[in-house]
Specification:
four-stranded antiparallel sheet, disordered C terminus, three-stranded antiparallel sheet, 42% helix, disordered N terminus, GMP Synthetase, Chain A, domain 3, globular
Length: 481
């Protein structure tokens, strides 16, 4: 996350500002202010000044016009992740015996941190400034991953599976089936007193026999993965609603033994002609974005969610451990984390990268990556550049720079292991799938294959073809620019 200065929550995760109320007595208020590991360290004097200003503005000192609360700021070195930070503990009993109020302290602390970031010349946390933000990870989750030898915490694995399935699905019923096909347990949360109205869902990683799974609600994985938010991207009809209820009921009986009620297209490998169709759809979506105002955060969130879902689906299929595709998906997903009240249903006329997600999730499983994959990747990368441009246009330079770095490093790694897409004028297929380029269509229609065993992606080195930043400040450039 693009911030120099922020608070950590009760679980110790880098999620912007939050309060540590879950693990402290009611008469003590506790929080921590932290820097990212790559942002260096502040002097004791500067931390002291920041701490004093913070408690003043939170209303815990005489600056509030009331009796002072006793408080202490402790700095005891870097965290295990290398973050410079301080802890602040405040006694809520004032010197005159009255109790300090913590009403609306979350928002107040957020606003205070934003002001102090400006005043002390620190980069502002992008999620706080622009209403974005991702969920944090609890120490218990990290410990469980360490204990079991997992390469990532369950929440991240589940988020990627759910995100890929949501992007690849045409409706809610297909979503349930795809999540299950990804090897993830899923169960519904029915509305109170009903067994035909689903209000939410939860997912879990399959565990060994006798070990209880740990369930995560969709909203715990990410803001944009709650069921109401996912439904904004699917058509609403009586037929699709009934199909979804049937699948939810089937998995609610026994998530471990769920069998699809009405298997659909997820059971079949996509037809070769779909590569041309969905590559073209991603290109058309990118062109359509030129007419969408940057202030329309709901529309851009749908685009970011689709793009993140496509990369998540690709990662699900070819990366045995989280790699550049998973990292790209997580970075793009942050752009979809808008607040619930600003979210709106997806417009019917708006294009989608969902078809690309479906292709990347279901492609054949032998051989090496083909030109079809390279062409589709190029379109997805150009779509990512459009998202970067949106963040720049709204003044969110930190987020734009972070996505640019990801595109420059992570996606360059992917591009280097795919066939090179010839530039215009070169012998061979055209850059994009186009009816005017029969050879390109023929190659694209050969389909996509997964990598060889032992390698997360096919091999061929040509990283500079994907992304080359221009010189000068804030002059990131993307593919096809």
């Amino acid at each position: 996350m693009g911030s120099n200065f922020r608070m950590k929550n009760a679980h110790g995760s880098d999620t912007g500002i939050a309060l540590r109320t879950a693990t402290t007595p009611a008469d003590v208020w506790h929080c921590s202010l932290s820097l990212r590991a790559d942002e260096g360290q502040l002097s004791d004097e500067k931390w002291g000044a920041i701490a004093q200003d913070f408690v003043d503005r939170m209303g815990f000192t005489e600056a509030s016009g009331k009796a002072e609360c006793r408080w202490v700021a402790v700095r005891h070195g870097l965290s295990t992740n290398g973050n410079d930070h301080i802890h602040i503990a405040v006694s809520l009993v004032r010197e005159d015996g009255t109790k300090a109020s913590t009403h609306n302290d979350f928002k107040k602390a957020q606003d205070t941190c934003r002001d102090l970031e400006r005043e002390y010349g620190l980069k502002q946390l992008s999620s706080r400034e622009h209403g974005l933000g991702e969920r944090g990870i609890k120490p218990a989750e990290q410990e469980r991953a360490r204990r079991t030898g997992a390469v990532e915490v369950d929440a991240h694995r589940l988020e990627r599976a759910v995100r890929a399935a949501a992007a690849a699905s045409l409706d809610e019923g297909e979503f349930v089936r795809r999540v299950r096909r990804a090897g993830v347990l899923i169960r519904p949360r029915f509305a109170a007193g009903r067994d035909d109205v689903v209000a939410g869902y939860s997912v879990a990683v399959r565990t060994k026999h006798g070990t209880a799974p740990v369930w995560y609600g969709g909203g715990r994985l990410a803001r944009d993965l709650t069921l109401p938010r996912l439904r904004e991207g699917w058509p609403d009809s009586p037929l699709s609603a009934q199909s979804a209820v049937d699948e939810w009921k089937a998995t609610s009986r026994n998530p471990w033994q769920y069998r699809p009620v009405a298997p659909g297209r997820e059971e079949h490998e996509p037809a070769p002609a779909m590569w041309q169709q969905y590559s073209k759809e991603v290109r058309q979506l990118r062109e359509q974005l030129r007419s969408i105002p940057v202030e329309d955060r709901a529309a851009w969130a749908h685009v970011a969610r689709d793009a993140a879902g496509a990369f998540a689906a690709w990662s699900q299929r070819v990366e045995t451990t989280p790699g550049p595709l998973a990292e790209t998906s997580r970075e793009l997903a942050r752009s979809a984390q808008i607040k619930a009240h600003t979210s709106k249903p997806k417009k019917v006329s708006m294009g989608s990268a969902g078809g690309a997600a479906m292709l990347l999730m279901q492609a054949a499983s032998q051989g090496q990556g083909t030109m079809a994959e390279a062409i589709l990747m190029r379109q997805l990368a150009r779509l990512t550049v459009a998202i970067i441009d949106m963040h720049k246009a709204i003044g969110d330079e930190a987020c734009a720079a972070q996505i640019s770095r990801t595109l420059n490093t992570q996606m360059a790694t992917v591009a280097s292991r795919l066939p090179e897409v010839p530039r215009k004028g070169q012998t061979g297929p055209a850059t994009d799938v186009d009816e005017r380029a029969p050879e390109s269509v023929r190659i694209a229609q050969t389909g996509l294959s997964a990598p060889r065993p032992g390698s997360p992606l096919p091999t061929k080195v040509e990283p500079a073809k994907l992304y080359k930043p221009a010189t000068g400040p804030d002059q990131d450039r993307g593919i096809g620019r």
